[in-house]
Amino acid sequence: MEISLDTGGSNLVRSYGPDRIVIGERTFRAAIVLSPEAILEDRLPRRPEELAPAHLEAVTALGPEVVLVGTGARLRFPAPEVTAPLLARGIGVEVMDTGAACRTYNVLASEGRRVVALLLLG
């Protein structure tokens, strides 16, 4: 799906599909961590069931107020122990399918919010 949002900002999702996420002119074919300032490609799992608390350490280091977890083509919740460290720090966590996470990320980033998205494919 193509997304069009004129914000003049950086690191916005331009389009997404089951096998790709396009940010600006770059196409990613694996899971990423995305913030307005950074794109991290650190060997993330493909499925939310494979997420571990260690995968979210890089997310926490980005200083978000809210983390969006995109779980692929359909909504699947990661284990509670994965998101517990974020919640314990007062960081909001929203889990949704990756398409919804991309759209929500773009809106929050364009509003200047401290948002980070963990976007899984599949």
How would you portray this structure in words?
This protein has 122 residues and is α/β, with parallel strands linked by helices. The protein has a single domain (13-120), classed as MTH938-like (Hypothetical Protein Mth938, Chain: A). The protein contains three helices and eight strands; from the N terminus they run βββββαβαβαβ. A five-stranded mixed β-sheet has the order 5-4-8-6-7, sandwiched between helices. The radius of gyration is 13 Å and the shape is globular. The model is unreliable at 1-9 (pLDDT under 50).
Quick rundown:
It comes from Inmirania thermothiophila. With 122 residues, the chain is of the alpha/beta class. The protein is built from three helices and eight strands, in the order βββββαβαβαβ.
Overview features:
single chain, 122 residues, alpha/beta, Hypothetical Protein Mth938, Chain: A, five-stranded mixed sheet, 3 helices, 8 strands
Topology, element by element:
Layout: E1 13-17, E2 20-23, E3 26-28, E4 32-34, E5 39-40, H1 57-61, E6 66-71, H2 80-88, E7 92-96, H3 98-110, E8 115-120
Parallel strand pairs: 6-7, 6-8
Antiparallel strand pairs: 1-2, 2-3, 4-5, 4-8
Overall CATH architecture? 3-Layer(aba) Sandwich
Strand order of the largest sheet: 5-4-8-6-7
CATH class: Alpha Beta
Category from helices, strands and their pairing: alpha/beta
Please give the largest β-sheet.
5 strands, mixed
Low-confidence stretches: 1-9
Span from first to last CA? Answer: 14 Å
* Tally of structural domains: 1
Question: Total number of β-strand segments?
Answer: 8
Query: How big a fraction of the residues is strand?
Result: 25-35%
CATH level 4 superfamily: MTH938-like
